[in-house]
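Supplementary Methods, section 5.1.

A reviewer requested that the exact input to the structure prediction be made available. We therefore reproduce it here, unchanged from the version used in the analyses.
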Amino acid sequence: MPGISRSFVSGVRIMNTEFRPGISDSRSRGALYGLYIGDALAMPVHWYYNREALSRDYGLVTDYLSPRNTHPDSILWRSSYKPLSEKGDILHEQATYWGRPGVHYHQFLQAGENTLNLKLCSELIKSLNEKGGYDGNDYLERYVAYMTTPGNHRDTYIEESHRHFFTNYARKLEPRKCGVPEKHIGGLVGLVPIVVFYQDQPEQARQAALEHLAWTHLGPSMEEAASLVMDVLLRVLGGEELKGVLVREIQAQRSPFLGYPFFTWLEEPDHVVVGRRFSTACYVDHSVPAVVYLALKYHQDPEMGLISNTNLGGDNAYRGAMLGALLGAANGIESFPPRWITGLIHPPPDLRRPGVISRHEADP
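The structure derived from this sequence is encoded token-by-token as follows.
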């Protein structure tokens, strides 16, 4: 992003004196922390499409900040959701803010807090840990309970995928049949814990991740986007360099999301590529290639990559979550500034991978 200088950000890197992770563990924790960091950093300026307004309201965002009302680009004034029955009530105390102008999507969250989709990732990690693997029925039970219980989260905005799911659930469809065709990048965040968990079993990782995706985000576009993200993440977690993986994928042209002149665009400012070449919106046909571009450009610099993504606006939270996961997997948890690690209000739960001693178990 033009105008961003490293003098704005800390060059200090984290060193955990209690537990020195091996390379594999560092990459795994880096992917999970990157997922949460990219979301939390962008949260206060999420869905700002007017970059002048973003800069006016927050300046250059380099740290966790609290959201402020009013939000100039908020669409809550024209958004509505009316549950068909008590089974579909997922807005709870936040319903009163829908239909009002200027309401911030995440108005009650604190600096360093994650949005709803990442809170659901924590529920997924708990399920993986307790079941010793992916159990779709268990996750769906947790998902329904979490969403229908007042007070579990304080997010005002709830994305369309959840609203459609619970509309169908209120119609008494089985939870496994409540998903609808979707195209938003927010649906990809749940893939990351599953891929990290099954990184030594690639086929099981793909099978479980696609099953998980289908609960809320059906359709070929989402499957194609998920396949690309999973393939890249699995190879990087396995030790390959992120840049090399992306270059080979672009050259192979196996994915419909890679048919762009990325190498030429690397010479252009970020706000031109993500803003003019690609929309900053949430749809995967542009948001996933935008993640690829940013990952390629900042493959060795997670801090600057996530700062640039945040200040580009649009769906920077879920674009940032996916970018953070890739950059964290490539560079390890040590590559993130300590302030971002310690500043997360609810960091990712410790994921207990099969046959791997967890950080908690390794502590004396």
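The two ends are 44 Å apart (CA to CA). These observations are discussed further in the main text.
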